Amino acid sequence: MEFLLQQLLTGLASASGLFLVASGLTIIFGVTRIVNFAHGSLYMLGAYLGVSLIGLFGGGTLGFWGGLLLAALVVGAVGALFEMAVLRRIYQAPELFQLLATFGLVLVVQDATLWIWGAQDLLGPRAPGLGGATQVFGLRVPTYDIFLILFAPVVLGALWLLFNRTRWGILIRAATQDREMVSALGVNRKWLFTGVFFLGAALAGLGGAVQLPKGSAHLHMDLQIIASVFVVVVVGGMGSILGAYLAALLISLIRVLLITNAQVTLGGVAAWQMELVSMFLVMALVLILRPWGLLGRREVLGYQHSGTPEPMLRPADRSLQLAGLAVLVLLLVLPWIAGPYLVSVATEVLIFVLFAASLQFLMGLGGVISFGHAAYFGLGAYGVGLAVRHWGAPMELALLAAPLLAAGGALLFGWFCVRLSGVYLAMLTLAFAQIAWSIAFQWIELTGGDNGIIGIWPPAWVGSVTAYYYFAGTICVIGLLLLRHFAFAPFGYTLRAGRDSPLRADAIGIDVRRHRWLAFTLAGCFAGVAGGLFAYLKGSVSPEAMALPLSVDALVMVLLGGVQALTGPIAGAAAFTLLKTELLSLTNYWRAILGCIIILLVVLFPQGLAGATAGLRRRGEGQA
Amino acid sequence: MTALLQVRGLSKAFGGVQAVRAVDFDLKPGELLAMIGPNGAGKSTCFNLINGQLQPDAGSVRLAGEEMIGLTPRRIWRLGVGRTFQIAAAFASMSVRENVQMVLIAHHRRLRALLPSAAALYRDEAMALLEQVGMAGQAERACGILAYGDIKRVELALALAAAPRMLLMDEPTAGMAPAERKALMALTASIVRERGIAVLFTEHDMDVVFGHADRIMVLDRGQKIAEGEPEAVRADPQVQASYLGSGAPAGAGWEADA
């Protein structure tokens, strides 16, 4: 009993930080409909600023609390600045480009933090006067935990007052319900959005700073928390602050229970091994039972409603065919004109082009946004890895396991995902990707855990860099051409029909959900091929192959290239991979440069690279 | 000729409101039946009960003797019941011709084919349909950029593409200019009579209704209050009272939108 109470209190304390960050994200989403991927970065920034400011003011009572508050305000200002400088320019662009801009910010903040504070973890200062332990029902509980447990409801109450008792808060709630109506009533929407970003970012910063006495500030905080925060927000219902609080409690308690009962086994799996998976299982379960979260409302805005109709897809015209031919010739002669390093880079580029194309197939044609496409790339890689490690399979067989495992995973996860739509669907794909990642990370006997599986080398006949380049490249080009062919086949049209008008599609006998499921599986299968080829290129497989950063990379590639252009993923993946490789060799701060480039591109070309060139071509034709 | 569609005792309540109350009617092949009535009379509910969007509380809807209650909209479409939407819902990212081809692909059950090129399938059939509705000249334009009246013509071609036995048309001419309305309805009437397709349509424009319907059915507060040839319905005192409001001179008010 005592033990249980102790766990309960620990869970409540850790829920507080999670809630602060999640409430900020949910407020921003509720009003602006932007899924702020940079929210974890703002949290990290809050922690680092907290350390510095508290250090600057001295660790006294005033210095500590003043430092916390100031850190939150500075982070709020950073968020507001980002909104004014970047997001404000692209509210007219499709929602996904706003997402892309926030990816850019993630990268910039990562490197800015590295540059300012260095790579070392910074230990958090102790809270003056709250350092010891307090007796609660005969238990010794850290006093700061008690503060945290009480702090979250206080913030919740303050937010409630703000949104229900102030004019500004009521306007925000009105904007959450109907943005257009609020601006039609003469409210300056711009400042409302900026204000919302300030508040949301400040809450994230506060969340980061307030957890300092229990932990530290380090460079992995951003992506570490963002997945949890997404889960909390989605489980609570996007836009619902109270929902976020309840979800934070739920998730934290479950995690604490699993960690503290680490040795308890359930069906042969130890509890600690389920700790990472548990959170995402809870999310998947909640979304299946309540598709809009515990307290959320049905999503009215979706990806389909970006205003302008999607452009028509046209088969390649003469100039595009010639360009394609030129690229193929260049790829063919590349080993003669370039060194092994470049050939190896080119292999990687081709693999990522196939990976991105599979995501584009799903997003562009099916209208299904996936935040977790790396899961299927990774499943493909693990298909190879497991076949080699456990059965000693030769490459020719192991490469068959890649699409099989990936398609199997996509078939399973996709069945759940296509039951939802819009952002909720995207979040569920993320949750499943994290589940797959956690399994790879924690099921050490099978997957080798963090170390992964090594020694995956191609056989002698494709053993050289050049031979493997031709081998993998051929498969990728074939895969790409197949996906392109499918887009123009009846199945591709069926997917677009479901995306353009689900109502009409249903009325002509198309089961939209079922076809999305098939597309999900097909896309997963092609991503798996790419993953399998990647495993043999690198000689190893690790959980990184299905981690969140890779899913984000894939999204960036597709969005950079332009979601609606079939040539988009080629341009996007090539540009992204080359840029990343090039920057990586030039500077330690490649992320910041990449992030700035992404943000710049989004602001300059909201239709993506391929979309922009298509626009130029159209303009050229218009003048001719 | 026997009825293609037999509706008997169709009833649906939403909460305490009886939206449709024991409605009976028949529809013969090649016949145009207009369903009219003031706002809230239950026209849309009736439509949605027949096309499978809603499930009735009681009653039966038989197509050529086969019960359709309980079937999904997709299944009902497969049985040969086409529909057009009040707010046009074509596939915006496809050309006019591709829209028709999409329906033909669905009709021929080739939705999942991966090998053929969709643009090459049923091309002539699609062009013939577009020729019929007068849209062949715009076959290559994107549906997303068409004028509204043209989209309505495309809608008609889409509905016809699946070779339906019956068409449900929810305000086929809504949002069109008066001259366009007459032209579209005349076109619809000539095509369906020629093909022997039964049509049930709702419409606010009384010129369209009285100009083209073979029979008219009047609903008011969920109940059928009159049914018959246009002249008989026009003369029905109960219709005049409930539909036009009492005291309106017969004939004059019919011109206005209800």
From TrEMBL, chain A:
Keywords: Amino-acid transport, Cell membrane, Membrane, Transmembrane, Transmembrane helix, Transport
The organism's taxonomic lineage, starting at the top: Bacteria, Pseudomonadati, Pseudomonadota, Alphaproteobacteria, Rhodospirillales
Cited InterPro entries: ABC_transp_permease, BCAA_transport_permease, LivM-like
Organism annotation: Aquibaculum arenosum
Subcellular location: Cell membrane
Family label: Belongs to the binding-protein-dependent transport system permease family. LivHM subfamily.
PANTHER family: ABC TRANSPORTER ATP-BINDING PROTEIN, BRANCHED-CHAIN AMINO ACID TRANSPORT SYSTEM PERMEASE PROTEIN LIVH
UniProt signal peptide: none
Keyword Transmembrane helix included in the entry's annotation: yes
Name of the featured protein: ABC transporter permease
Bilayer-crossing regions: 12-35, 42-62, 68-87, 99-118, 146-163, 191-213, 225-258, 270-289, 322-343, 350-377, 397-416, 423-444, 467-495, 516-537, 557-579, 591-609
Entry membrane topology: Multi-pass membrane protein
From TrEMBL, chain B:
Organism, as annotated: Aquibaculum arenosum
Short name of any one Pfam family annotated for the protein: BCA_ABC_TP_C
Record key words, sorted: ATP-binding, Nucleotide-binding, Transport
InterPro entries xrefs: AAA+_ATPase, ABC_AA/LPS_Transport, ABC_transporter-like_ATP-bd, ABC_transporter-like_CS, BCA_ABC_TP_C, P-loop_NTPase
Signal peptide: none
Every ABC transporter domain range: 5-246
PROSITE patterns, per database record: ABC_TRANSPORTER_1, ABC_TRANSPORTER_2
Top-level lineage group: Bacteria
One function term, GO molecular function aspect: ATP binding
CDD domains found in the cross-reference section: ABC_Mj1267_LivG_branched
Protein name per the record: ABC transporter ATP-binding protein
UniProt-listed SUPFAM superfamilies: P-loop containing nucleoside triphosphate hydrolases
